[in-house]
Amino acid sequence: MNMTTKKLGILVGGGPAPGINSVISAATIEAINSGLEVVGIYDGFEHLIAGRTDQIRPLSISDVSRIHFQGGSILRTSRANPTKRTEDPGQVVQTLSELGIGYLITIGGDDTAFGASEVADASSGSVRVVHVPKTIDNDLPLLSGMPTFGFETARQVGTQVVLNLMEDSRTTNRWYLVAVMGRTAGHLALGIGKAAGATITIIPEEFSKPTLSLNEVSRVIEGAILKRRVMGQKHGMVIVAEGIGAKIDPEELSRVPGVVVAHDPYGHIRLEEIPLASIIRREVQKRFAERGEVLPIVESTLGYGLRSAAPVPFDIDYTRTLGYGAVRCLMDERNEELLHGAMICIEDGSLRALPLPELRDPTTGRTLVRVVDIDSDYYITARQYMIRLERRDLDDPEMLAGLAAAASMSEEEFVRTHSLDGS
Ligand code: F6P
Question: Which domains does the chain possess?
Answer without folding.
Answer: 3-149+311-359 (3.40.50.450), 152-306 (3.40.50.460), 390-423 (no CATH)
